[in-house]
User: Fold this.
Amino acid sequence: MGSIDEAYLRNNVEVLVREGFADNPNDLIELAREVAKTALSDEEGRINPKGKYENELITAVFGEPTSAPQIRNAKLRQLLEDGKLKTSYRYLRCGRIGWISSNRQEWDRI
Assistant:
């Protein structure tokens, strides 16, 4: 099961604003949400469905280091390669879901 960790997403947005790629962090987050919703309707879940780097800034917002080769902007690509942008994707192995206890003290072992 996968999800997006908003804390990492916001951190990446702050880095991108600091590096001059955007002026308003809230606008960039809203754009990322819109692009993500559009990707859900794409058969392959592509952020850049036209294949023309149209959303490479949003690709960087999600922080997936394996996406670096698909980013043309050298400065943006370098932020991913240097680890300044962190992956916002989080995965939970479904086998562990059954282990989750109602005892909150046990949650930290997941």
In short: The chain has one domain: 2-109.
